[in-house]
Design goal:
single chain; 733 residues; alpha+beta; Collagenase (Catalytic Domain); Immunoglobulin-like; Jelly Rolls; seven-stranded mixed beta sheet; six-stranded mixed beta sheet; elongated; binds zinc ion
Length: 733
């Protein structure tokens, strides 16, 4: 997936395709911001060959269309030449609070589309007399999809909670679940409409015209939630549903009425290739007063600014021409990406079986980390898509392919309603597990459609380990033994992964893929086992190596390291780095980041103040927060504690080991008292080793080399500024 949208995110628009700034007084959007011209132009800049192919397809189309127009001559005005076709529409509402766009608001938009395309719009009375004979009544109608691509009953509306905004153009994140959006339904059967927030709130929406080489899943209409329908979140002056009327006109191969150029390019030489729309110089905004003439159409009745394909306000537009409706019908019959819609069964509700349960997804455990768990309670979202009320169903839970745990659930679920059912607790051990849950025997009889009865997922159960714990991700198991992985999005592939050939040491490391998964605000998580630490530990530390790059100035991934003393029930952050503080590669890169050896940086996190001497268990969690950035890697994680000998703490120093083979260490607990000298004497008073110290702070560790003295008893004399201490030691071979 390329990163053009990131560029779009940070680089201001260098050229303007017909929208103008919002009024500063009331913060409302005053001028129509159709982005179709913009996205087409950007697409052609990136794929120059596609522009040639597109123009060729349009020329071929134009010939067919002109034939249709010839056949039209001699027919009565507005006489239908095609049968009515109804296009199934799926409306994906993708917002932080998708309930802002109600079912009624969606229906208000469908009503406008059906009225406008049929020429049944009440405001058609406003069509000037001179244009009435050109008033087009299309055969296109729209329904909310009545069945899913899989054949289950549907409402044609789905709501997704997400902060992802539309970045108009190719790879628009709202069209990809991996970027926090939602994937299109089968574009050959449905017109996909994404209702969302636009990155630039002056933008009202866009589509791609047919004849482009775009990915199939990008076909459809993206619209601002405030320019959709006539009620609810719709805002004047774009609250009459005409953004959809206009943009779906582009979807069916209509150009802007003034031609192919941008709105503000003054030209009579470009055309919309429709013979009954007057040639027009530039676009019109707002609510112009009829008639208007311009450089291209100087004579009365002038230009047709009240056409749906101009830029006037919703209330000021009221018609397609017959030439335009013929053009849309021809496009439906000509373009390979539109023709399949003619035979879609998406408007037809499926026949219901009497006993049919649809498993929608596993509610729990769904790609989560269960800490210190010995069992879990499976939960399943189901929909009764049978015609009979569902009174009982078996829930079957399979972990790692083992024999199912079965529970009969009794309930009372009417047809086409959803609910969550729970199985009995299932025992589970530490590790990373696959889970499959399926339903059987709805109402005690065989399910009549079994293809929709099963859901699968994965989950981790963390285990226990001692300290020190060192993890370099060299073993092929991911997560490593007793560790846990998960993430807070619906995309399982966003979990941290083990990668080889990329490492601080050894051959492998763990990668958090923020490059392919643009899941803003979502977290990818790596949990350590719960580690036993001595309650008497003097220090608890976490060390690790990280490598990270920024994708752009605007991208801002973060790493949070947290600890838990209650086995992952609650976590406390002890480390957070983001953006420039996190990155280890100097330059931003829009490529899929792989660190060079020099780009690994060590981090040490001292948990001693929170843990040492207080808790005998700790769990550490590494959490990456997605900020539209790039990959983050971790390697060589070490979690350890240090417990000092009690004698060291009591006396302030110790000499170890005793007996010694010759390599003796003097260790101080508190190095505040200056050490003047060390001298070692044999049992007969002969000095065998000595060192003097001047004005130097006492070192914590001082080596005393007795390797070359014979075995026997020795006396070590420690001379401090305020005292002298003598310790007896035994030298052995
Ligand atoms: Zn437009």
């Amino acid at each position: 997936m390329n990163r053009t949208f990131i560029l779009r995110y940070i680089i201001p628009l260098l050229f303007c395709f017909g929208w103008y700034a919002a009024s500063s007084q009331d913060n409302s959007i005053r001028y129509r911001g159709c982005v179709t011209g913009d996205v087409m132009e950007k697409y052609f800049q990136k794929h120059p060959q596609e522009k040639i192919a597109f123009e060729k397809r349009q020329q071929d189309f134009q010939k067919k269309y002109e034939l249709v127009r010839k056949q039209r001559q001699g027919l009565q005005a507005q006489q239908r030449v095609n049968a009515t076709v109804t296009i199934p529409v799926i409306v994906h509402i993708l917002m932080e609070d998708p309930s802002q766009v109600t079912d009624d608001q969606v229906q208000s938009q469908l009503d406008v589309l059906n009225a406008d395309y049929a020429g049944l719009n009440a405001d058609s009375v406003n069509i000037p007399a001179a244009f009435k004979s050109r008033f087009g009544k299309s055969e296109l109608r729209f329904c909310l999809a009545q069945r899913t691509p899989q054949g289950a009953p549907a409402t044609g509306i789905e709501r997704i909670t997400s902060v992802t905004k539309s970045l108009p153009g190719e790879n628009d994140p709202v069209k990809y679940s991996a970027m926090g959006g939602v994937d299109a339904w089968d574009v050959n059967k449905y017109l996909n409409i994404w209702v969302c927030e636009m990155d630039d709130e002056n933008d009202l929406g866009y589509t791609f015209m047919p004849g482009l080489g775009i990915a199939a899943g990008e076909r459809g209409f993206v619209t601002a939630y405030h320019a959709f329908g006539t009620i609810g979140s719709a805002r004047a002056p774009f609250n009459k549903g005409r953004t959809a009327t206009h943009e779906i006109g582009h979807f069916f191969n209509l150009s802007h009425i003034w031609g192919a150029n941008s709105c503000n390019v003054e030209s009579c030489s470009d055309s919309d290739n429709v013979d009954d729309t007057p040639n027009q110089y530039v676009c019109f905004f707002g609510t112009p007063e009829y008639p208007k003439t311009d450089n291209c159409t100087a004579a009365a009745p002038g230009v047709m600014f009240m056409n749906y394909m101009d830029y006037v306000d919703d209330a000021a537009m009221c018609l397609f021409t017959i030439g335009q409706t013929d053009r849309m019908a021809s496009a439906m019959n000509s373009f390979a990406e539109l023709t399949p819609l003619l035979s879609s069964n998406g408007c037809v509700p499926p026949l219901l079986y009497s006993n049919d349960v649809e498993v929608q997804r596993i509610a729990s455990p769904d790609n989560i980390i269960l800490n210190c768990a010995t069992s879990f309670t499976p939960q399943l979202h189901i929909k009764n898509i049978g015609s009979a009320t569902l009174t009982s169903v078996n829930i079957n839970t399979v972990v790692d392919g083992q024999a199912p745990s079965v529970k009969t659930v009794t309930l009372s679920l009417p047809s086409l309603q959803t609910t969550t059912i729970s199985g009995d607790a299932v025992a589970v051990s530490a590790g990373h597990h696959s889970i499959k849950i399926y339903t059987t025997l709805p109402n005690g009889s065989a399910d009549q459609f079994v293809a929709n009865d099963t859901a699968t997922s994965i989950f981790s159960v963390t285990g226990n380990a001692g300290t020190p714990l060192s993890e370099g991700f060299e073993s092929t198991a991911m997560p490593p033994q007793d560790w846990g992985i998960g993430n807070t999005s619906d995309i399982k592939e966003y979990n941290p992964v083990r990668v080889t050939g990329v490492s601080h040491s050894g051959n492998a490391s763990v990668k958090f893929d923020n490059y392919h998964y643009q899941l803003f605000g979502k977290n990818a998580i790596l949990n350590s086992p719960e580690l036993a630490i001595p309650i008497a530990a003097d220090s608890v530390k976490v060390t690790f190596w990280r490598a990270a790059a920024k994708a752009s100035l605007a991208s801002n991934d973060s790493l949070v390291v947290e600890y838990s003393t209650d086995c992952g029930q609650t976590f406390v952050a002890a480390y957070k780095k983001g953006g420039n503080d996190l990155k280890t590669k100097a330059d931003n890169t829009s490529a899929d980041y792989v660190p060079a050896a020099s780009e690994w940086v060590a981090d040490t996190l001292d948990l001693s103040p929170y843990i040492a001497g207080k808790f005998d268990k700790v769990m550490v969690r590494f959490r990456i927060i997605n900020g539209y950035g790039n990959n983050v890697y971790l390697d060589d994680i070490r979690i350890y504690s240090v417990t000092l000998p009690p004698a060291l703490k009591q006396k302030g120093y110790i000499l170890t080991p005793n007996p010694t083979t010759g390599s003796l260490v003097l260790q101080h607990y508190n190095a505040s008292t200056p050490l003047k000298a060390i001298a070692v004497f044999s049992s007969i008073g002969q000095m065998v080793w000595k060192a003097e110290y001047e004005n130097a702070g006492t070192s914590n560790y001082i080596s005393i080399n007795l390797r070359n003295v014979s075995r026997g008893i020795y006396f070590v004399k420690l001379v401090y500024s305020d005292k002298t201490i003598v310790e007896k030691i035994l030298k052995i071979d």
